[in-house]
Amino acid sequence: MHLKNSKIIVIKIGSSLLVNHNKKIRKKWLSSFAKDIQKLKFRNKKVIIVSSGAIALGCKKMNYNKTNLKLDKSQAIASVGQIELMNLFSQTFSKFKLNISQILLTLEDTEERRRSINAKRTFENLFKLDYIPIVNENDTIATSEIKYGDNDRLASRVAQITNADTLILLSDVDGLFTKNPKIYKNAKLIKKVKDLNKDIKNINIKGTTEFGSGGMNTKIEAAKICNLAGCNMVIANGLHLNPISLIEKKHNCTWFLSKVTKLHARKKWIISSVSPKGELIIDDGAKKALINRKSLLAAGIKKVSGKFNKGDHIKILDNKRKEFARGLSSFSSEEINKIMGHHSNEIQKILGYVSKSEVVHKDDMVEV
Question: Exposed (0-12), middle (13-18) or buried (19+): which is 210, by Cβ within 10 Å?
Answer without folding.
Answer: exposed
